[in-house]
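Following the same procedure, the fold was encoded as tokens, giving this record:
***
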Amino acid sequence: MNPQIENNFKYHAPQPGQPELYQEIREKAKELAYLIDEKVPNSREKSLAMTNLEQTVFWANAGVARN
């Protein structure tokens, strides 16, 4: 059994304080998303920036949940 695989693929119930941290991360990312939306011309690069920002939020929140 690989402990990292077991941890990465199980449900992680929120611990006290985590939902607030998830929200804080999402809010900061949303600020950046609006900046990108306003300042960057519509393009493949803008789409990739938005996609990668979403991934950043996902992985940051996963890091909180898993550790």
Remarks:
- Helices lie at 3-8, 18-39, 44-66.
- The chain has one domain: 16-66.
- The two ends are 19 Å apart (CA to CA).
